[in-house]
Amino acid sequence: MPEQITLNRPEQIRLNDGSAIPQIGLGVWQVDPAITAKVVRWGIEAGYRLIDTAEGYQNEEGVGQAIRSAGVPRSELFITSKLRNGAHQRDAALRAFDETMSKLGIEQIDLFLIHWPVPSQDRYVEAWKTLIELRQSGRIKSIGVSNFNQDHLERIIGETGVTPTVNQIELRFQQRDKREFHDRHNIRIESWSPLGSGRLLSDPTLESIARKHGKSVAQTIVRWHLQEGLIVIPKSIHQDRIAANFDVFDFELEAKDLELIRGMDSSDGRTGPNPATAAFLF
């Protein structure tokens, strides 16, 4: 069952290594490096304390600038980045991690993820072992993965005995079976692109629920993630929307709202979007 959500403040989600992560954060995927520092500062001003970047986004330096200029103690921020796809070999991973830390300008990162398993390379187990090594050295607090399927997760756990704290994924059709596997192994799901890159914002069902609560569709979607016990990282480059996406702690979706949203899901087994069912993409 999803954890009870406390209204009026962001929840801290406990990870399987004992650390805690804010349940809502600011994502900076596809944010222009030239404006990243400004966007992240807006997020911190709005109340976000989790900031999610990646080597592949090419905007880690902007995140680092925001960390230094935001006027918030480093201890209050939770910074995430990710290992790029071409650096799964141990020595390459160590160099890439050093580059990330240099660009961010921090001594220790809160969460570091393998961005993608890249099965064709077949080196993601080696990358996972390197992250374990970096965590043991104290340079990373928590380690996890992104875009990993069940077979990838089973392999890294089986070969190392270390379970990821987080798997950051895009939830397609709500993926109940995938979420059940994560629950059994105490792996937290972190939802990237929760607003469906804007595809969901004109959905009539979501519009109806949003109107009832006096909230926007985006706020309704973010609230759904929170009540499902998911970690969520909405992204925007507009100051007002950044603030609005965080303003979700003064209302709660009702049971019938949740039922309607679950009814938007597809059960046809497809692996991609099905426009005819108004699938709930995250």
Structure notes:
With 282 residues, this protein is α/β, with parallel strands linked by helices. The chain has 10 helices and 10 strands. It has helices spanning 33-46, 60-69, 90-104, 124-136, 150-160, 176-184, 204-213, 217-227, 239-246, 255-262, and strands at residues 12-14, 20-22, 25-27, 50-52, 78-83, 109-114, 140-146, 166-169, 188-191, 231-232. An 8-stranded parallel sheet has the order 3-4-5-6-7-8-9-10, covered by helices on one side. A two-stranded antiparallel ribbon has the order 1-2.
Give keywords:
282 residues, alpha/beta, 8-stranded parallel beta sheet, two-stranded antiparallel ribbon, 10 strands, 39% helix, disordered N terminus, disordered C terminus
Question: Would you kindly provide a brief summary of this structure?
Answer:
The protein is of the alpha/beta class. It contains 10 helices and 10 strands.
**Average pLDDT, all residues:** 90
Order of helices and strands: EEEHEHEHEHEHEHEHHEHH
Rg calculated over all Cα atoms: 18 Å
Question: How much helix is in the residues?
Answer: 25-40%
Which class of secondary structure composition applies to the elements?
alpha/beta
Based on Cα principal axes, name the global outline: globular
Range of strand content: 5-15%
Query: Termini separation (Å)?
Result: 20 Å
Identify the strand order in the major beta sheet.
3-4-5-6-7-8-9-10
Low-confidence stretches: 1-7, 266-282
Main β-sheet description: 8 strands, parallel
Number of contiguous helices = 10
Strand segment tally? 10
